[in-house]
Amino acid sequence: MGSQKIINDLRQIEEILSKAKFLHLAFSDEDIPYIVPMAFGYKRNAIYLHSSQKGKKINIFKTNPRVCFEADVETEVMTADEPCKYNVRYRSVIGYGQAKFLEDYNEKVEGLAVLSEHYGKEGPFEFEEWKVNRLCVIKIEIESVTGKQHGF
């Protein structure tokens, strides 16, 4: 089994992001950390999320748009005869960026399309205008991202 390895290759990072089912999003409410798993989509160095327009994460975004995100794939616990020799096989990505609320209707539709494509739907998409207007669509411009893998 291979050892832990840093992944800097953007193609490998994008592969992990395309395979991941959920993203763990971390942000800070003043000095208190907050993390939440979310459905997401990735396209052109940006993460797209959707949410209701109210709630704790929305309130935090409004005061502090800086975020950290993590996504992982191919995770597996590798057991051993002795518990202290257990290991984990994984590929993961951690990144940082700024969250931005999309206000423009067409940008919101684009973000929702990226999310739909991530979960295996094929476009073109038609979204009901009242539903789009009711949702909060968030775009995270990625400022930095790295990956790690272990056991490959």
CATH level-four homologous superfamily name = Electron Transport, Fmn-binding Protein, Chain A
Q: Briefly, what CATH class? A: Mainly Beta
How many DSSP-defined strands? Answer: 8
- SS element count, helices: 4
Structural class: alpha+beta
Give the helix level as a range of percent. Answer: 25-40%
The mean pLDDT is: 91
> What's the CATH architecture name?
Roll
Rg (CA only)? 17 Å
Biggest sheet, open or closed, and with what strands and sense?
8 strands, antiparallel
Query: What is the domain total for the residues?
Result: 1
H and E order: EHEEEEHEEHHE
What CATH calls the topology is Pnp Oxidase, Chain A
Strand content: over 45%
Shape: globular
What does this structure look like?
There is one protein chain. The chain has 152 residues and is of the alpha+beta class. It has a single domain, classed as Pnp Oxidase, Chain A (Roll). Helix content is 25%, strand content 45%. The chain is built from 4 helices and 8 strands; from the N terminus they run βαββββαββααβ. Strands 1, 2, 3, 4, 5, 6, 7 and 8 form an 8-stranded antiparallel sheet that branches. The longest helix is centred in the C-terminal third of the chain and has 14 residues. The radius of gyration is 17 Å and the shape is globular.
